[in-house]
């Protein structure tokens, strides 16, 4: 696993940016000075990404840290798309589908790539800000005093990119739904608690007009689990760490610790906490081993984590990694929903995926 992360976070991005910058160098029909300035600027934007990985943003003024975080993470996604474009062009040239002149010193090709990238990322930015409302109908086989309306979300990733202004907009959306209960399936925090504390985002969470329950995600561990727990308490969020609570009459919520914590309780152990006569919802951030939830007898599981790849075609990879990478799923009597996330990690672009929240209506048995 350590080798995988080293390759993913260091070698592959460096290889990708080298490939892209070389193609830009030979494609641009400008002089040496301009090529140096343009490719040098691209490299500088990419290198800002490692300031975040190294924790150096914590020592910079907040506006500077916010700017550098957005530049670095956005550049990573832009490079990813440029790699796909240049690989397609190289294959086409090798197969003699396009002439060599298309990829060397060519204003037309430069303009076409520039327009394509601009349209793609403007769309991705707009699409990210338009939150999708997903309606989910669930039938309880257990007695409930009434039908419940439950708002579910995951992966808010509040931090340097999603600040208090954005959170305030999300809280307004949630309150407008008038839910009986709000559930968060982990990764409320991105990688640092500093923006949440300095902007007093806890105050926004306290505006929510329904009980709020949550579980931990892997990013809470990246930011520091003890500090994250304190933030949840200040925010009025009921954090369940391998614990259960009767959130509404007849409805039990169990929050599982994230798999980052290797000694977390098993689902069999957690199932013994719940009253089998009550409708039971499991919050488990990472949607691995869904069969275990079915075997444990939970009525519903809410997960997140995958972001559904965040941008196409990474969604294809998540489909290979998970039994259910996004959306509704069912095994036996257990229903699942894996959310692509309300927020996002890094660059705020949604291409081929959506930022969403779920409105689940749990119907009382007749």
Q: Which tags fit this structure?
A:
Purple Acid Phosphatase, chain A, domain 2; 366 residues; alpha/beta; 17% strand; single chain; 13 helices; six-stranded mixed β-sheet
Name the CATH architecture of the largest domain. Answer: 4-Layer Sandwich
Tally of structural domains:
2
Unreliable runs: none
The value of Rg in angstroms is: 23 Å
Average pLDDT: 93
Name the structural class: alpha/beta
How many strands appear in the DSSP assignment? Answer: 12
Ends distance? 49 Å
What is the CATH homologous superfamily assignment of the largest domain? Metallo-dependent phosphatases
- Binned strand content: 15-25%
Textual characterization of the structure:
This protein is α/β, with parallel strands linked by helices and 366 residues long. The protein folds into two domains: 127 residues, no CATH class; 232 residues, 4-Layer Sandwich (Purple Acid Phosphatase, chain A, domain 2). The strands form two sheets. It has a six-stranded mixed β-sheet with strand order 1-12-2-3-4-5, covered by helices on one side. Helix 1 crosses helix 4. The protein is elongated, with a radius of gyration of 23 Å. The chain starts with a helix and ends with a strand. The model has no long low-confidence stretch (mean pLDDT 93).
